Every structure is written in C-alpha cells, then in structure tokens.
TrEMBL record:
It comes from the Bacteria. InterPro entries: FecR. It comes from Bacterioplanoides pacificum. Pfam families: FecR. Keywords: Signal. This is FecR domain-containing protein. Residues 1-22 form the signal peptide.
C-alpha cells in the first residue's frame, strides 16, 4: 500500500483555526498529476482535478509520484511536490475599505513546494507566513522552494528573499543575505553553496559559481554559522539563477501607459521588418484597427503607423495571441513615423512586415521543468524577398530553450519561396526582455549568409489558456554574401518535450 493511502487510513495531524470563519475560495487547481486529496476542516476528503477550487480551510495531500499546481486568488502560484501535506489556514484578499491588508497563513506538515508569491504580502510583509515544524517563513516578494523531512527543512531562494523565524533566532536567505540556500534544524542553520537535490529541478538549477565567488563562499563556510544573519539591503552574494526566461511582474506587458498619446494605453510586443532589418519594440492601439508601433531611439520615442489597409490575404499565425500582416508602403501611401510630440519625422516608401504578440509572464512558465521546444513545419505566410512583399513564404524550424538559464543552443530556421531556400542556424539567450540570438551559420543556395547583417529576434508568447504551454513569435532577416535578402515572421507552438531535427538539409520532406 502506498504512503498516500497510508495517510488516508491513519490519524493525521490536522491544524484547525481557533476561530471559525466562512469558508472562502483560496485558489484553483491548474495542474494535477497522480493522487491528490483535499481534506476540509471537518475531515471530509475529495480528490482534486484541474480547475477545482481550493478553500482556505483545506489540507492538501499528494501521494507517491503525484504533484499539484495552484493559482491563488492574488495570482500567486504554488507547486506542491509528491508525498507532501500542506494546510491552508487563511488566504484573504485585502479590503481597502477596512484598511485590511489581507493575509496568508499556511502550514507545511511534510514534503515541500515551490512558490511564486502573489500580491498579498508585497505591501505588508507581515501578512504572509508559512509555518513549518522548525519555524515560520516570511517573504520579501519572491520565488522560493522548501522541503521538510526528518525534522530538517531545506530552503532555497530563486528571486527575492525569505526569513525563517524559529527557536534559534531569525535567518535570512536571498537578497542581502549571505546565502541563497540553507538547511534548518531544531539546533541551528547551515548555509549551502548550491541548491540541495530535494529542491533542485531542471527549471531551477543554479547558475554555476565563478571561481572568485566560490572562494568567497568557502571562506564564509569556514566561519561559525549563527542563528541570525545580517540582512542589509543589497544584492545577494550568490548569482541569482533564472528560474525561467520571464522575470517581469504578471500582466505587466499590458499595463504600460504612454502619457500624451491619447487613448494609447495597451502596450504589447511588436516586431517591424523591412529591407532595413528588424525593429523590435512595443505596439499600442489607439482605437483604430491598425497597431501603432513604438521604438525607443536615442532621440526619444518613435511611433510608426500606417493609414492604409493591411493585406487581407495574410494567413493567420499558428500561435494564439499573435497577429501579423504586411503594410504595403509606397510613395503614394507611405508608412509614417512620428516623435512622441506627434511631429512627422520620417516616411517609409516600401513594404513592411508587422507582428504583434501578448508576451508571456512568469506565471505562464511557472512549474515547467527542464526545457521547452518550439517547432513548426511551416505554412504560407507574409514575407519579403529582396524587399518585395510576398504572401506565400514558408518558414519552418525550431529550437529548445533551457528554462534554468534561458539558453538556446540548437536553433534552426528555413525560409522557402518556391524552390529558393534560405537556411540559418542560431544560438543565444532568451530573457525577460526578449531574445539575444546570434546566427552562427547558414546559406542561401551556394551562397553563405552574411552573419554580421542577418538577424533573428522574438519573444515567448502567452498561452490562450492558463496552464497551457507558451509559444514563440518573432521575425528574421537573412542576407547572403551577394546582398540577396529574405525577411519574414514566424510563430511556433511550444511543447514540453525536447528534440529537434539536426540535419543541415533545409529542404522539407515532401
């Protein structure tokens, strides 16, 4: 009999609030694997499935090879590991009318979790507390992991900081502290250089220490560990690992307002491509059906817009939350660029590709371990061949991204126009602001690519439904050594498994 069913048939420690209160929804399940049970404060049990509510009086139990992800009412996320028991004692939103900051109180009885905290506790840090058998955890706005077993608590901070208060005093991890990882017992604290195996997953692997920083840490280890550590402001001594390529606040991509531009208050990711190259930036909507693109120049903000129609024959992209098209700029109907004061500063008399996308937030990749793969077999879509607009460019390829550090090593892209093929290999970094890709090789027929002028850029795209895998969208311009060019857009669906074609043969199977 598994340990999970042993829990169900023996007496468990149930922590009840000393005062009764109305049961309220604390969050909803966004992913469940294996045997997961919620037990209310009356001892009634129910299995949990995706989209099920979780209440502020539930105790959650996971069995062998089981796990659960919860999205809480304040947009916090929690991934509960196998063989864990977590009691939710209170989860209340703030009430401005009552000058109430809300509160979160949870109890980790056994096992562990990884969490990205939400809005509760960001203003008043005292409003958030997680109790454990060796002390209580407070936060300073963070992503952290804990694991408790055999009277020992392991903790690690991936972003922000935590403080553990126990019988031996107060100990901090993360921002401003000496360590990002530590071991807590009933007798004291031990700082750790690297995350313990119980905490580390492929999505939270630590960035390797440099030799200098490793030496600093070894010196720190030689000093006696004290229950209370100095927690002055400043960056953590350990390099902060990147838990996923997106580290901005949830929904930040749609909350930026440019003052002085009327109703332009919805900022998304934008990509403009012309014969002059890629111009990634933002995109706003001012009530018209056409987007308005923004680029931050040395001289200030530049707005690019087109008063003519978008090409109606453009095939929709394969990824949700992405739109694209062609602006057929000409001398008779140019694409116009303005400064932030509304003054015309430039006109474009040539076709220009455009793409808009809703960027993914940290919530969209939270809980995904290892790597994401993006791959597409292609289809007819807008493009530019030697600066001339076409609607039947086929773009296919893909890449893997390591979510632990945002690294891309194996990207490949092919653009086919009739029997004319362009092929590029690329590598680089995917981060919160987009991508930093370098084209490492490729060809156009017999001609090699001009690596200094060819470019590929893009971003992770928010999935259509919570819990789904993000996509990737962007644009490219490939230029060969004879100054021929191909430019286009691409939107590739994401998937959790890895493995891509590695052949240098760019032609698709027919």
């Amino acid at each position: 009999m598994t340990r999970f069913f042993f829990w169900l048939n023996t007496a468990c420690l149930v922590l009840l609030c000393s005062q009764t209160h109305a049961i309220a929804v604390a969050g909803h399940v966004i992913m469940v694997k294996g045997d997961v049970i919620a037990r209310d404060d009356q001892g009634q049990q129910r299995p949990l499935s995706r989209r099920d509510p979780v209440y502020d009086s539930d105790t959650i139990l996971t069995g062998d090879d089981s796990r659960l992800q919860i999205r809480f009412i304040d947009k916090g996320l929690l991934a509960l590991k196998a063989n864990s028991e977590l009691s939710i004692r209170s989860y209340r939103q703030p009430d401005p009318d009552q000058q109430d900051d809300g509160d979160i109180l949870m109890k980790l009885v056994e096992g562990g979790f990884r969490t990205l905290t939400g809005t509760i506790g960001k203003g008043n840090k005292e409003a958030y507390k997680v109790e454990t058998p060796v002390g209580s955890i407070g936060i300073r706005g963070t992503m952290y992991s804990v694991w408790f077993s055999n009277r020992e608590l392991l903790a690690g901070v991936w972003n922000g900081g935590i403080q553990l208060d126990g019988p031996q005093g107060s100990t901090s991890l993360g921002d401003g502290a000496d360590y990002d990882f530590g071991r807590f017992t009933g007798t004291g604290f031990e700082g750790l250089l690297t995350p313990p195996a119980q905490l580390e997953t492929a999505s939270t692997a630590a960035t390797p220490l440099t030799a200098e920083k490793a030496q600093d840490k070894q010196s720190a280890l030689a000093e006696p560990a004290t229950p209370a550590l100095d927690n002055s402001d400043g960056a953590s001594h350990l390099p902060q690992p990147l838990p996923n390529p997106i580290d901005k606040e949830p929904d930040a991509a749609t909350q930026t307002t440019l003052i002085g531009n009327g109703q332009m208050d919805s900022l998304q990711y934008g990509q403009l491509i012309s014969s002059a190259g890629n111009q990634p930036g933002g995109v706003m909507y001012d009530g018209s059906e056409q987007p308005v693109f923004t680029q931050q120049q040395l001289s200030g903000l530049t707005l690019t817009r087109f008063d003519g129609p978008a090409d109606p024959s453009v095939t929709p992209p394969a990824v949700a939350n992405v739109n694209w098209g062609i602006w057929n700029g000409s001398a008779e109907q140019p694409i116009r660029q303005y400064n932030s004061e509304g003054q015309l500063i430039n006109e474009i008399h040539e076709p220009l590709l455009w793409l808009t996308a809703n960027p993914a937030s940290s919530l969209d990749v939270f809980g995904i371990n290892g790597s994401l793969s993006f791959y597409s077999e292609g289809g007819a879509q807008p493009g530019l061949i030697n600066g001339e607009a076409v609607n039947d460019l086929t773009v296919f390829g893909g890449f893997d991204v390591n979510l632990a550090n945002g690294r891309v090593n194996d990207g490949n892209l092919t653009a086919a126009y009739g029997d004319d093929y362009w092929y590029a290999r690329f590598a680089g970094q995917l981060n919160s602001s987009g991508s930093d890709f370098q084209i490492t090789g490729g060809n156009h027929g017999e001609a090699t690519l001009n690596l200094d002028q060819s470019t590929i850029t893009g971003i992770l795209v928010a999935p259509q439904e919570p819990g789904s895998v993000p996509g990737f969208a962007g644009g490219f311009q490939l230029i060969d050594q004879l100054d021929n060019s191909a430019a286009g857009l691409f939107a590739w669906p994401g998937r959790i498994d890895s493995g891509l074609p590695t052949s240098d043969n760019p032609e698709p199977q027919r």
